[in-house]
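COMPLEX REQUEST
Ligand: iron/sulfur cluster
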Amino acid sequence: MVNVKQILTALGKAYPLAKTELQFNSPYELLVATILSAQTTDRQVNKTTPKLFSYYPTPEALATANCEHVAQLIKGVGLYRTKARYLVATAKILTESFQGQVPHTLAELLTLPGVGRKTAKVVLANAFGIPALAVDTHVFRVTRRLGLASGNTPEQVEKELENSIPPEEWIVTHHRLIRHGRQVCRARRPLCNECCLRSYCPSAKN
Ligand code: SF4
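STATUS: Structure written out below.
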């Protein structure tokens, strides 16, 4: 039987200060950075956004942008042409339907181009402090290995985790699981011998 409380405590000790690595100064900047972060490292996004925001500091400015200009500014990130279109389309919706503000409900965020459940939950959690547990590739892999979840899709895993983890722990647990997935429970060759969760983990290898 998986002991959720012990796992959360061990993660808390290992990564007490875990938080998002994306750099942002407003909900708008976080939304843009999170859209850019799909299939791209946070480090690359952080290298890209300062120039983008110097040209387009607000949704109103980005809504009138030429997609090709935005694409050139974000060329270092994966799928940059598609993301440029998403960014401009999202900025138009923010301007026209949300008074230039980033909405703070899941349903409203999901109406924005380029925003799926993971992106929406990252924005809810990190821009507004609203309890949300985004399941990215690290959270998906680590929690399944730990036996905290068994679902075959991120949405199934999200439901399982939200049922077993108290809401006040969702945001920080998301960040801690990502840190653990990047540093220790890697996709290939997880470092089980160095893992603080080893004694609770049914997937631990020698
Ligand atoms: S023991 Fe291994 S598989 Fe289990 S969480 Fe740690 S690194 Fe991942």
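REMARKS: The pocket of iron/sulfur cluster is lined by residues 142, 145-146, 184-185, 190-192, 195, 197-198, 201, 203-204 (CB under 6 Å). The CA atoms of residues 135 and 154 lie 6 Å apart.
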